[in-house]
Specification:
The complex is a heterodimer of chains A (365) and B (224). In chain A, 55% of the residues lie in helices and 17% in strands. Chain A is an alpha+beta fold and 365 residues long. In chain A, the strands form two sheets. In chain A, strands 1, 3, 4, 5, 6, 7, 8, 9, 11 and 12 form a ten-stranded mixed β-sheet that branches. Chain B is of the alpha/beta class and 224 residues long. Chain B is built from seven helices and ten strands.
Chain lengths: 365, 224
């Protein structure tokens, strides 16, 4: 019966109900979009690192966060020296230049990288033929509406798109290492080195060997490196997520508080009727709270649906810059945040309704 | 009509605070109502009859005096106790019907049963009452689709669905035309005669008051 009372109440004021559900859905979408954006970026980066085929990564000592790319401070000859170490099959130095974060141009020795990774998969065109040639992945091509033969101006330099590659290996935008070094005034320098060992069983041994060289560089297995790519390691993301979650609770609280306050005011006489029938304060409060919870559930469902819309929109507009995903594991969290806000928001109007004097309520016009 | 009193008030007083002024709504009411009695209370506006109705129905506590309803001392009751009294001992019929507008007639009756903790099927006696009220075919309509007379008969059905000891009716014909008024009053008299339902009815209308076994008059917060 409580359910019927609540349902009929919600049906009786459809616009207010829909408006409340919509407003409560917005923070759910915001939370899910933020998480989807962060985790999408991280997963995409992890996949591209794993796609290199390397076993070990060596970064400059100045490399700070996992997402920030090390500057060109490693002499190229270090890669050559590392390649001389026992069990090291290949050491490929690359240089990254940030263009429009999180996008970077990666300078790479294509022949050596192909040996390590098995090579890019070309969807259109092919490898570098001239110094100004550039390879872009499908996501960047879709985002910028570029195809083979087009010109892309980056770093104040006109590049010729030579090939469109399948995403998932090292870079979205790749140019020849030497050309990027010249443009960066970093001739002979690289930012990081990917190392391939002869046998996976020797990875740890090689890491120890490289540590023993006391180069001062950061040396990690690729597995360790990829594991570092968590939202908590990205500066500010954790705090921003908390802020959005708090915002979700506050918005839920305000929306439901206002909606239920109006609803209780409109239903003063009905509350009086229920009290005349012997409804307890607890019963009245329960009705208001259940109503708020239903609004919260509606808001959560709508928020999830809208997050799919947001994800589609982002992936259509900027697939390369923001490879957003839908993170289903956050649905219950977003739902709990919304229900918490709704439950708290309904408390004051609910208690007000429960405390109403039945005679005054029955006399309410 | 049984002889034992089901309502008994002695020197019942009620003072309302309106702004900074104390208003004496009841100034020492002595009233005894026997179980099974149909009592009409008449009096002009402001005579205190509604206040008496509210106190006996457990909607508000008295300020002084004694009041016993179905053996329970209302003067010493807490708010929760009065809620329980409304749930089980009294049933209300109001001038404005006071049906829940979002629910059908059937669910208006069901909600009263649910609140009283009664969730089983309707008993045969109540089914019979529904038939006699002439609203059995109108139960799936919401109040807005019912006439005033039908709404009041649904309100009566809701008021007695939990078999209360006392049915309190506050101007039950106040919003009805003469034909519907007569029908509602006949229903009340029938409930009293057939089921022995104790009824306390407040009215302005002398014709309506005549349906009761007895009539008491109130003026200035007293029974005269």
């Amino acid at each position: 019966m409580t359910g019927r009372l609540v349902w009929e109440n919600l049906k009786h004021r459809p616009m207010l109900t829909l408006f409340s559900v919509l407003l409560m859905g917005i923070p759910v979408t915001l939370i899910l979009a933020l998480v989807g954006l962060t985790q999408g970026l991280l997963q995409d980066s992890q996949r591209r690192q794993q796609g290199t085929g390397a076993d070990i990564i060596i970064r400059a000592s100045t490399a700070s966060g996992v997402v920030s790319f090390s500057s060109a401070t490693i002499p190229e000859k270090v890669a050559a020296k590392i390649e001389e170490q026992p069990h090291v099959k290949l050491a490929v130095g690359v240089l990254n230049h940030s263009i429009d974060p999180p996008l970077v141009i990666t300078g790479v020795d294509l022949a050596r990288f192909d040996r390590m990774s098995g090579g890019f998969v070309y969807k259109k065109g092919g490898p570098f033929k001239s110094p100004d040639d550039m390879l872009i992945d499908e996501a960047y091509a879709a985002q910028t509406h570029k195809t083979v033969g087009d010109t892309v101006t980056l770093l104040n330099h006109a590049w010729h798109v030579a090939g469109i590659i399948e995403p998932g290996k090292l870079a979205r935008i790749a140019v020849q290492l030497g050309v990027l070094q010249d443009l960066d005034a970093a001739t002979g320098k690289i930012g990081q080195i990917y190392v391939k060992v002869d046998d996976a069983a020797n990875i740890d041994a090689v890491v120890k060997e490289l540590d023993a060289l006391e180069t001062g560089y950061k040396i990690n297995t690729l597995e360790e490196y990829v594991a570092m790519w968590t939202p908590s390691k990205i500066s500010g993301v954790k705090e921003f997520t908390v802020v959005i979650m708090v915002l979700g609770v506050v918005i839920g609280f305000l929306v439901v508080g206002l909606s239920m306050y109006m609803s209780v005011l409109q239903r003063t006489r009905e509350i009086g009727i229920l009290k005349s029938l012997g409804a307890s304060k607890g019963f009245i409060l329960t009705i208001i709270e259940v109503e708020a919870m239903l609004l919260g559930v509606g808001g959560t469902v709508l928020g999830i649906v809208m997050s799919f819309g947001a994800c589609w929109l982002v992936r259509t507009l900027v697939p390369a810059s923001i490879p957003m995903i839908v993170v289903q594991s956050w649905w219950p969290i977003a739902g709990l945040i919304t229900l918490l806000g709704a439950g708290l928001g309904a408390l004051y109007p609910g208690l007000n309704a429960a405390r109403q004097d039945p005679i005054e309520a029955l006399a309410y016009e | 009509m049984s002889d034992g009193p089901i309502i008994e008030t002695r020197d019942l007083r009620k003072v309302y605070r309106v702004g900074k002024v104390d208003v004496q709504a009841l100034r020492g009411v002595d009233l005894t109502v026997a179980a099974g009695e149909f009592l009409s209370i008449v009096g002009p506006s402001g005579s205190g009859k509604s206040t008496l109705f509210h106190i006996i129905g457990g909607l508000t506590p008295p300020t002084g005096g004694q009041v016993r309803v179905a053996g329970q001392d209302l003067a010493s009751m807490t708010d929760s106790d009065r809620t329980r009294l409304r749930k089980r001992t009294v049933g209300f019929v109001f001038q404005k019907f006071n049906l829940l507008p979002n629910l059908t007639a059937r669910h208006n009756i069901a909600v009263a049963r649910f609140i009283s903790g009664n969730t089983g099927p309707l008993d045969a006696q109540f089914e019979e009452v529904l038939q006699s009220l002439g609203v059995a075919q109108r139960l799936d309509h919401k109040p807005a689709a019912l006439s005033g007379g039908e709404q009041q008969r649904i309100a009566i059905a809701r008021a007695i669905v939990n078999h209360p000891a006392i049915l309190l009716a506050d101007e039950p014909t106040g919003n009805l035309d003469s034909e519907n008024s007569k029908a509602v009053l006949e229903v009340l008299r029938d409930l009293n005669e057939r089921l022995g339902q104790t009824i306390l009815m407040i009215t302005h209308n002398p014709e309506a008051a005549a349906y009761g076994h007895r009539m008491v008059q109130m003026r200035d917060g007293k029974i005269i």
